[in-house]
């Protein structure tokens, strides 16, 4: 049995595969019925975010004749029994697409609606905020092209109208919608409730000639589902129509007359065309979305866009019942904010592909980089008819195109043709180490698992086998980023781990134990079905959502509140050659095989963050390291020795951690910014017990902290030197940007949406204070600024005296993190009142005491200004770059990343509200 680390109880049960998703900012979303729960794996019990799905209004796609209700193509619409919308599919965007640089959550409901949500970072509430409705935009597009139909086949208005424009009384017109049928009420042997909250039946009270039947108006549901409501006016004969439609905005007991006026006004202002049953079914299928999937970040190389928009975007794929896939491009925001959520999110439809002839049930993305300047998107689509196809899209065309294209994607392989087993889930990966290789795992409703490998450039294809290992439908698949390990789950409540060796798949066990793991109450016997899995950003954990068997639960204390649970399991990277039963002589209670697995897994996870395209989200890695630090600290030191020593040559396995760390301090100026950020996060972990609440500026004091474990001073000194090096790099970056000719020529672009150098006067003072430790080249840069060589071009370098926000006293510059004003003297008491203030961790300027600031949960620093994105991708010190080369362009965008940790900064929220925990 796999060992889980923690569990989160849910109040509603999932209903569809892939009901759980893990974001790049370390939040987990779980779709369970009409509720979507968002939680942090660092604290899964509370706090939590919430999305409650409301009923949606119908689309006016047309009306049909009453006699056409018996047409076969309308039977699925008539027989649907959806009472309230439920979440069918969810998908997280990459990090950086929400207004606060977080992730957007795409939600597809059983009504066929697709909406985007963001976190309520400025609303201070648990309910997430809807930002855009994709389905409305899709409807307007389809309406503009007449749903792909020939215009002469459409009847523009109701048939049966007389010359005055009135509807013929003998003509019966039907408009299908998400209605509640009287037939369903008859089956339940209950009378229709005309004051029901979600549905209502209205009778318009005009007299009708004897013998004629009241017209029935049944409006269309958003997903093409609905059931037939047949109703006849009783009692007084009525001339007009009986309408049965969605009344989600009408409370119980509302006046029916007010509802009648609403519907009458809508019919007068929005007369719909008369369509055939085939047209109605086709239009309904086009608007019925089933699956959503975000691509990774797509970057276009070259200069910035003329309108100032970023070059980075992501593509949202939406698959529907008609077999079409629509592609929506979303750019990164031009600027990030934590003060207001009104930064627009503008999806643009850039493609509409007829991928299959039946329902789209699975979509998976990958990125194929043929060269440093050309990127292609790989898309795998699966259908309920069992077919699977692989498509290749031009990323450049999708990024820059302003028109809807049907040729953006080309078919490169039909993996499987139509079969009897529908596709339930898929996972595609393009391994980083072999970019030409595409590995695809396919899960079917029959429980079978298929794996295939494709090489794009050579257009070759090979099958890695079909495995009938699950007894019921597969509900979740997830590859690791290198394409070597696969995780699968099924509705038979099974969770399995696989390793891909060459062209064959072998099952491997989950780890039997983890040091210092805390298992909660065992409820495994009460589990009923499994509805999906998701892999953590560091790929050390897998989250699984399962429903409970209510018959196995305590009927008083659990049955009504324990509907499902999300569990988090540790994973390891198995190798077939590692023994698992040999006892270790060095660490009691663990085997050699277990420790080797954990060592290789953690080392791989730390190493894969060398890729600057990967956001720094190390929560799972740090959780594992903290557990090892408590249980077997010597083993942890051994892992860190191997990780750090792999950066340099000439080190032997027996070298001490102190020797390696002293060497690292001498090589800081040669290290990449990404590795320095990783090193700082690990240093804080290793010194967390001695002074976890130490202020950041205290690290720069030469006093020693208590040495309880022998080498903690080494970690503290390394952290102080590393942060000083990063501060020196950013000061050099800023000063060089001022002196750069490219900055002067593009000065007009620094308009608030792009980065511009600020705080140069404070930076000059910081260099002066640290004159003895500063690099010689940095001193020369500061001297050029001080001599006035660039002052005529940039007035920002002129020194402006700073004053206290509380008493207006002068504030001298003494520290880059904190400040203290000179104070106000109270003559009667003979005292001086001073105030402690904060400085921006980026600009070193005083920050406002009332405006919200960006906060780093790792080093607990605050920032009012944001650094440029290119600073975090630098391979070395900017002092080694000639500023006259034009590399310091100001038209790049700012990123809310911590200058010293590299992780995502966010608004500091109360403990009762959900916050992301990237570290």
Automatic annotation (TrEMBL):
Domain Transcription factor IIIC 90kDa subunit N-terminal stretches: 22-153, 286-554
WD repeat intervals: 353-391, 467-508
Domain of life according to the entry: Eukaryota
Claim: Hydrolase is one of the keywords in the record: no
Pfam families the UniProt entry points to: TFIIIC_delta
One cellular component (GO) term of this entry: transcription factor TFIIIC complex
Keywords, alphabetical: WD repeat
InterPro entries assigned to the protein according to its UniProt record, in alphabetical order: GTF3C4, TFIIIC_delta_N, WD40/YVTN_repeat-like_dom_sf, WD40_repeat_dom_sf, WD40_rpt
Protein name: Transcription factor IIIC 90kDa subunit N-terminal domain-containing protein
């Amino acid at each position: 049995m796999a060992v889980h680390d923690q569990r989160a109880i849910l109040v509603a049960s999932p209903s569809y595969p892939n009901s759980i998703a893990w974001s790049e900012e370390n939040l987990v979303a779980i779709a369970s019925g009409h509720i979507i729960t968002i939680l942090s794996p660092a604290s899964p019990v509370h706090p939590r975010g919430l999305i409650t799905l409301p009923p949606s209004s119908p689309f006016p796609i047309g009306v049909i004749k009453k006699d056409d209700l018996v047409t076969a193509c309308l039977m699925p619409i008539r027989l649907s029994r959806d009472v309230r919308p439920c979440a069918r599919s969810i998908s997280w965007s990459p990090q950086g697409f929400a207004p606060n640089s977080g992730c957007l959550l795409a939600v597809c409901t059983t009504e066929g609606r697709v909406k985007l949500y963001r976190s309520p970072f400025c609303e201070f509430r648990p309910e997430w905020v809807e930002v855009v409705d994709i389905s409305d935009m899709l409807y307007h597009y389809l309406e503009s092209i007449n749903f792909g139909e020939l215009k002469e086949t459409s009847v523009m208005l109701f048939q049966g109208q007389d010359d005055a424009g009135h509807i013929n009384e003998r003509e019966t017109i039907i408009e299908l919608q998400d209605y509640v049928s009287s037939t369903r009420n008859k089956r339940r042997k209950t009378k229709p409730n005309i004051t029901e909250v979600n549905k209502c039946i209205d009778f318009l009270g005009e007299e009708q000639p004897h013998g004629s039947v009241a017209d029935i108006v049944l409006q269309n549901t958003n997903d093409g589902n609905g059931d037939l409501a047949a109703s006849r006016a009783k009692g007084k004969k009525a001339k007009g129509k009986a309408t049965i439609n969605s009344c989600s905005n009408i409370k119980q007991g509302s006046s029916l007359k007010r509802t009648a006026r609403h519907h009458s006004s809508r019919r007068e202002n929005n007369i719909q065309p008369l369509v055939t049953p085939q047209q109605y079914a086709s239009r309904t299928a086009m608007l019925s979305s089933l699956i959503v999937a975000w691509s990774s970040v797509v970057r276009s190389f070259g200069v910035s866009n003329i309108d100032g928009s970023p070059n980075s975007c992501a593509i949202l794929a939406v698959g529907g019942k008609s077999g079409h896939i629509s592609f929506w491009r979303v750019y990164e925001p031009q600027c990030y904010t934590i003060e207001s959520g009104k930064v627009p999110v503008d999806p643009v439809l850039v493609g509409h592909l007829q991928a299959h002839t039946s329902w789209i049930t699975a979509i998976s993305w990958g990125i194929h980089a043929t060269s440093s300047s050309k990127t292609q998107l790989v898309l795998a689509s699966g259908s309920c008819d069992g077919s699977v196809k692989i498509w290749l899209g031009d990323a450049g065309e999708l990024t820059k195109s302003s028109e809807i294209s049907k040729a953006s994607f080309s078919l490169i392989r039909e993996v499987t043709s139509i079969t009897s087993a529908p596709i339930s889930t898929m996972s595609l990966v393009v391994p980083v180490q072999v970019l030409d290789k595409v590995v695809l795992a396919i899960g079917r409703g029959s429980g079978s698992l298929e794996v295939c490998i494709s090489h794009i450039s050579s257009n070759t294809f090979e099958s890695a086998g079909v495995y009938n290992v699950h007894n019921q439908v597969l509900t979740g698949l997830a590859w690791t980023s290198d394409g070597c390990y696969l995780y699968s789950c099924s509705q038979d409540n099974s969770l399995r781990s696989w390793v891909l060796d060459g062209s064959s798949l072998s099952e491997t066990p989950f780890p039997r134990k983890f040091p210092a793991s805390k298992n909660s109450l065992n409820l495994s016997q009460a589990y009923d079905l499994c509805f999906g899995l998701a892999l953590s950003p560091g790929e050390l954990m897998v989250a699984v959502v399962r429903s409970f068997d209510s018959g196995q639960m305590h009927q008083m204390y659990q049955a009504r509140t324990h509907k499902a649970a999300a569990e988090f399991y540790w994973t390891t990277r198995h190798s077939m050659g590692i023994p698992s039963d040999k006892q270790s002589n060095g660490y009691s209670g663990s085997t050699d095989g277990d420790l080797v697995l954990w060592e290789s897994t953690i080392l791989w996870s730390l190493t894969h963050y060398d890729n600057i395209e990967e956001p720094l989200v190390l929560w799972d890695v740090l959780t594992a390291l903290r557990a090892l630090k408590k249980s077997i600290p010597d083993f942890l030191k051994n892992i860190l020795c191997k990780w750090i020593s792999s950066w340099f040559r000439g080190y032997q396995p027996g070298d001490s951690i102190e020797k390696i760390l002293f060497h690292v301090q001498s090589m800081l100026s040669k290290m990449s910014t990404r590795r320095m950020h990783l090193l700082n996060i690990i240093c804080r972990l290793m010194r967390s017990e001695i002074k976890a609440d130490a202020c950041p500026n205290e690290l720069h004091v030469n006093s020693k902290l208590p040495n309880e474990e022998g080498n903690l001073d080494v970690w503290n000194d390394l952290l102080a030197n590393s942060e000083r090096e990063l501060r020196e790099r950013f000061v050099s970056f800023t000063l060089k940007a001022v002196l750069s000719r490219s900055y002067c020529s593009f000065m007009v672009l620094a308009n608030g949406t792009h980065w511009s150098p600020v705080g140069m006067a404070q930076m000059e003072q910081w260099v002066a204070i640290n004159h003895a430790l500063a690099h010689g080249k940095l001193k020369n840069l500061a001297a050029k600024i001080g001599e006035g060589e660039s002052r005529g071009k940039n007035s920002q370098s002129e020194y402006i005296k700073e004053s206290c926000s509380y008493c207006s006293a002068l504030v001298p510059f003494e520290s880059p993190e904190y400040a203290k004003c000179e104070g106000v003297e109270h003559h009667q008491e003979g005292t001086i009142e001073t105030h402690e203030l904060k400085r921006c961790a980026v600009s070193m300027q005083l920050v406002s005491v009332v405006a919200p600031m960006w906060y780093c949960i790792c080093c607990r620093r605050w920032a009012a200004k944001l650094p440029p994105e290119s600073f975090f991708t630098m391979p070395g010190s900017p002092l080694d770059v000639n500023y006259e080369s034009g590399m310091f362009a100001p038209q790049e965008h700012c990123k809310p990343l911590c200058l010293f940790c590299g992780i995502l900064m966010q608004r500091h929220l109360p403990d009762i509200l959900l916050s992301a925990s990237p570290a």
